[in-house]
Amino acid sequence: MIDLAARDAADPLAHFREQFALPAGVIYLDGNSLGALPKAAPSRIAEVVEREWGDGLIASWNDAEWVTAPRRIGDKIARLIGARSAEVVACDSTSVNIFKALAAAVSLNSGRKTVLSETGNFPTDLYMMQGLDRLSGGRIVAKAVEPDAVIDAIDADTAVVLLTHVHYKTGAMRDMAATTAAIHAKGALAIWDLSHSVGAMPLHLTDAEADFAVGCGYKFLNGGPGAPAFLFVAGRHQADALPALSGWFGHSAPFAFRDEYEAAPGIERFLTGTPPIIGLAGLEVGVDLMEQADLSQIRAKSLSLAEVFEHGMEPLVQRFGFTAAGPGDPAMRGSHISYRHEHGYAIMQALKARGVIGDFRDPDVMRFGLTPLYLSHADIARAVAILAEVMETGAWDRAEYRVRAAVT
Amino acid sequence: MIDLAARDAADPLAHFREQFALPAGVIYLDGNSLGALPKAAPSRIAEVVEREWGDGLIASWNDAEWVTAPRRIGDKIARLIGARSAEVVACDSTSVNIFKALAAAVSLNSGRKTVLSETGNFPTDLYMMQGLDRLSGGRIVAKAVEPDAVIDAIDADTAVVLLTHVHYKTGAMRDMAATTAAIHAKGALAIWDLSHSVGAMPLHLTDAEADFAVGCGYKFLNGGPGAPAFLFVAGRHQADALPALSGWFGHSAPFAFRDEYEAAPGIERFLTGTPPIIGLAGLEVGVDLMEQADLSQIRAKSLSLAEVFEHGMEPLVQRFGFTAAGPGDPAMRGSHISYRHEHGYAIMQALKARGVIGDFRDPDVMRFGLTPLYLSHADIARAVAILAEVMETGAWDRAEYRVRAAVT
Prior knowledge:
Two copies of one chain form a homodimer.
Chain A: H1 4-9, E1 20-21, E2 27-28, E3 37-38, H2 40-55, H3 60-63, H4 69-80, E4 88-91, H5 94-108, E5 114-118, H6 123-136, E6 141-145, H7 150-153, E7 158-164, H8 176-185, E8 189-193, H9 205-208, E9 212-215, E10 229-233, H10 235-238, H11 277-291, H12 295-320, E11 323-324, E12 336-340, H13 344-353, E13 356-357, E14 359-361, E15 365-369, H14 377-392
Parallel strand pairs in A: 2-13, 5-6, 5-7, 7-8, 8-9
Antiparallel strand pairs in A: 1-3, 4-10, 9-10, 11-12, 12-15, 14-15
Helix pairs in contact in A: 2-11, 4-11, 5-6, 12-14
């Protein structure tokens, strides 16, 4: 028997719960899809809107330091992912940043034309590869192979390998350092999608010698819905990587308004358009909060929460037909836990109706995010107890729970 | 003598001034760079942050209609630019949307490989063309010629012409219908950058048979700093234009999470990443406010404000060495008025110190935005009187006014 109260009492992160505005009666297990609202966000966003925009108007680009926000927030994110200052900018969407990273990586490894990933990767990673392939007219070839076959599939034509560190469905986590080394050993570059790992565990991009990375601002970073994403480019590549999306904010002198693009000397060259200031303000609040936490403690608590979840699920798995969707070894997973069930969608709807919010991923994956900053061990146990009740009573088996929403 | 009081008394748009939160003592002539804050924006943004994000959490993608926001706001913008429903989406930055439009236009006109624009265009338009050129490895060629030479420069290799409707420096306005017809007559497609015209005058994209257009959300639309931009794709092109930035939000079934990209049937295929919900909320407030105004009245008042400005400048131009930067005929200008002066930067700083906020564009252009929703004729006359005083007293000639800021 796990002593929930003892674990919660000893939790060094417990006080972070008070920093988030979560509705009463809800156990929120979907912070890996959209992180919860930091209590500091509304007032900071209001300040940006009312004081900086409303009163400061155009002068706020200088006076409120809007112009340096992508780099300033990027430097904070760099500290969360084991990167150096001037290697990260916060900007655009994850999808657009994937495109930038792919195009830059291929240009650095010219002579090779394949961009390689795994089947079942988060779709936008694959779609952006396919778009680059089409646009290039065959100069760049997008290819995806089974997850276990990626390293073997790297050949003399492979320019870059795009992999997700923690899988969005299963939670399966790759060994970043070993995988990057294997990719490099075959002469390819590595792009890591950190969407499901940034803010959920310590990351070590510099130590792993990662070449590029992208990540999401609105999951574990709690930056708000559709928050700007980020792009990491290892310092050693920056001077040689000319951006494909070469917008005016990436110019060496944007306000000289010259006709010819000249890339900014460092990471700023990967900026494109005018930075989304209000969205960046929300992101910065989330990142600032995350910086106050110890990522090793976050990882330890995530594993502890997962243990409670799995322990609670033990009597349910066989009896009700759940199967674990991810690796059995918690050390090989990120910070969400997933189960397959043929009625997964309806079961998840039944849970939501009872205040337990996870999500569903086609065709049959129920996904539960374990966010150490605002969940307790008691929350997890309670969520599993509600799931047990939903299954035991057959409460999930109602027509209304089978109505599919636009966003699942 | 212009009767300012009479013009202001007869102004059908005067009541809109009360809808904006402008600081006391400021005459804001930079709404063409960053529009002013609508009073409705803070509460709407707070609602999105606190209620929709904080309380609604992930369910707000459905319940608060986040998922359809890019299209819903796009439809509203369509009405402002004379386009049809389902031809516009609000998303990404202007720069990124330019890239999408360029890539799509070239793919529709294959066999031709040149993308053509004018020298001195807003830099990001040229830079995105140059980036596409580099990325394509020569399959697409970026070319810019003198503004007056664009139509003559269209040849059998010109796939698409990218032009800005109202020039960011001079305010010079192109005849959209005639220019589009001339472009089409030579077998090329037309992309219009509406950044300095949307919200400043009636536009007629459908009547002009424009193929693509992009525009900015934070100038005359008052959407907030770095607000999402928009992309127009004429309905007749949508089915054949496969997006180069093919992200998951442009997929026909984003939540089916398939490995292969399949473009959504309509304008939604031009969405890329997860929509920036907080930024879109600010934009929607600005667009909703603009929809309440009559664009013909906006244009008429803009011309009337320009007349007051020019009338006031008459005695200053020769005496102090100003030269008009744009066309002499107000009908050939957009909604800002620009003058060149060798000390333009310092003069603009002196004006700002006195509450008259315009901006400066290298090397010597002083730019004054005339935004009919929140400026009166009296404001304009007062601004010019302050400029006269600055010049007559030589107050601009101080070292502190020559210190260049990062953003000008």
